[in-house]
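Appendix B. Chain record.
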Amino acid sequence: MEELIYEFNAEKKLEKSAHVGVVGSGNLEVIIEPRKDDKVIVNVRTGISGFKRTWDELIERFFKEHNYASNVYINDFGATPGVVKIRLYQAIEVTNDV
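Structure tokens predicted for this chain:
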């Protein structure tokens, strides 16, 4: 199990929490919770080692645009980068669906 932690500055606030996806073969779950400060903390736990550079690029690119003050937990079981992006977009959509 590999754990990667990222921290970014946030400029936007979330309305509520979200939980999307499931941890299973080739998939992942994303849990996102609002924070009161101006930080985005992303915690990735993955069972697939050796893809830190891919994670770095994907997470940095996504949260540069979607910089909501939040704690984000990504539990991965071999999802492709495309699936990761879809789940992140779904989580943001749910948090803003008031």
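Further analysis of this model is presented in Appendix C.
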